[in-house]
Amino acid sequence: MPNSLPLVQQNTYKSERPKVSVCCITYNHRKFIEQCIAGILTQETDFRVEILIHDDASTDGTSQIVRRYAEQYPHLIKCICQEVNQYSKGERAFPRLIAQSKGDYIAFCEGDDFWNCSRKLQDQAKFLAENQEYAICFHDTDMVDEDGKLISGSLLDRAVAETPVYTAEDIIGGKQIPTLSAMFVNRPIRFVRQYFSITNEDNYIFSMLSEYGNAYKIEGNRGSYRRHGGGVWSSMPQCQQRLAAMASKRAITIGISSQYRSFAAFRYGRHAARTFLFSLALLEIKPAAKSLLHYLESLVLCLFYSLHYHKGPIAGMARFASLLIPPARLLSRSSK
């Protein structure tokens, strides 16, 4: 395709292999899903794009909207509409969609978020094709409320603007990549058993991908993250968010390659220590006890990985020793 065309005009290229697969998961997003799909369909590219939409047995009519779009654009959209909610059974949609993706690159956009730049896919795919040392390309997004009113003009801190490259350690450590902003290489991802019980799946996926290369932030704000009462993460109390992030770091520690396991265990332990202190301060006994057990587990994992896998044993043991410092000292350091 010599010229960039809106996706809805690309029906003549349906025989070509897609270069980008867009993965969209949705559940009870009736109020938002059309804006999400519209943001995808208005993309202008000089390559074929496939759109995979997974509806997890919505009860508000979302699935009917998704099916209508799939019938209208069968050359673009493939919908997977579940009859029984899979998330409640411990299944996750992203591994299913990634496995079905045929593109060289994969982009995410959940059903309550949306893109607002028609060249988003074109620019990101071009960057990854020309800079093959990178595995992930992302950008800044703003934050809007349920009605689309602006809450914040940026989801990323200023440090990212100054240093747009994320290393594997940055990503494993928790530096934010907005899910709706990410495009990444379609490479095998290990989904360990612990992954299927975590909430914030994106950090796990991006951490696994970091083994293939760094992440790079391109210029511009190209999408909107929506915060609303029905959102899984935004509706959780802060203490529960900390526990969920801790579970994610544990899964990353178990799933990541041996090269990064010592570091991942260290970050897991540091987060567990902070969560323990945070829970104690709020007199949340059960979360405090749970995070303390995770902290003790992280000590064992950090020691084991430092001795068996870390390419620099001294540095690995230094990480282990730093976890033995009384957790109160961790309060003075920034949380990741």
UniProtKB/TrEMBL annotation:
Residues 21-137 form the Glycosyltransferase 2-like domain. InterPro entries: Glyco_trans_2-like (IPR001173), Nucleotide-diphossugar_trans (IPR029044). This is Glycosyltransferase. One of its GO terms (molecular function) is hexosyltransferase activity. It holds the Pfam family Glycos_transf_2. Keywords: Transferase. The keyword Transferase applies.
